[in-house]
């Protein structure tokens, strides 16, 4: 019976995902909910599961074929959710447009919580069905013998659930630990990253330069190809003015925050422009973002934008970051 209630819980959770945000365009605050897309299908699946579980709630055993199908479809939905998340993040990298209206509207788009909820609900249902089937097999009589295996006690079921929950919690803590490397290590890592990015720009290796730009930043410009075109055009314009960028170097790190998933730092780079024998320096502030605990960095230029404008355009920015 315990498995039935667990399946009912995840079915209800899967249904709720239909009414949650699946895609968000922060620039214009446009939200696409699940029921406007594939959420209709996932909602129908979870609703059907819940109805079956409610109708058969007085029966001691669930139909193995039906719950096996529930488990299979649960895993399919989990895989589908994973693919959607991967494709959305891939779209951020490959997005390209010459239409300023589309660029403005699409800037900063990201997946909503609904995709994660229906994916986790499907995965949890699949795992629960497997545990339920194992439980039933262990409690069946061995054919040809009048020997029944010992009944699996309720506390055994909960022990398995606690073990799985504990393992997932440990993995989450291990992967999303908020332990931040020392500030000097981060300074050194960011400085080296900016040096590599600077070398790419000065040597006109724009494809490599773009690899240091955060996907959301590329998206706000119109995509990687559009960014490369813009960089090339900017450099050509400087050459026409007999000006060149002679040096780009790390200047300072003002603040740093770790939200468990990313390390974000407010940094500045000093750009030296040279024209003949004259030179001038320009300080450019950026947000450095690392998703691998400071090993590599992606950058978002702040420009003249305020913090309110930046957090609206790029919702991934840590709101506690001071700038």
Give the structure's gist in a few sentences:
With about 325 residues, the protein is an alpha+beta fold. The protein is built from eleven helices and seven strands. A four-stranded antiparallel sheet has the order 4-5-6-7. A three-stranded antiparallel sheet has the order 2-1-3.
Name the descriptors.
3-stranded antiparallel sheet, alpha+beta, 11 helices, 4-stranded antiparallel sheet, Nuclear Transport Factor 2, Chain: A, 17% strand, 323 residues
What features would you describe in this structure?
With 323 residues, this protein is of the alpha+beta class. It has 2 domains: 2-138, no CATH class; 183-313, Nuclear Transport Factor 2, Chain: A. 54% of the residues lie in helices and 17% in strands. It contains 11 helices and 7 strands. It has helices spanning 2-17, 39-55, 64-94, 100-106, 113-138, 154-175, 183-202, 206-210, 215-221, 224-240, 307-313, and strands spanning 21-25, 30-33, 110-111, 244-258, 263-275, 278-290, 298-301. The longest helix is centred in the first third of the chain and has 31 residues, at 64-94. The protein is elongated. The chain starts with a helix and ends in a 10-residue tail after the last helix.
**Chain-averaged pLDDT:** 81
Q: What portion of the residues fall into strands of 2 or more residues?
A: 15-25%
| Biggest beta sheet summary | 4 strands, antiparallel
Structural class: alpha+beta
Unreliable sequence segments: 141-152
Q: Measured on Cα atoms, how large is the radius of gyration?
A: 26 Å
**Strand order across the largest sheet:** 4-5-6-7
In terms of quaternary structure, the protein is single chain
Question: Looking at the structure, what is the overall shape?
Answer: elongated
Number of strands: 7
Q: What is the N-to-C order of secondary-structure elements (H for helix, E for strand)?
A: HEEHHHEHHHHHHEEEEH
Q: Total helix count? A: 11
Distance between the ends: 54 Å
Number of domains: 2
Q: How much helicity do the residues have?
A: 40-55%
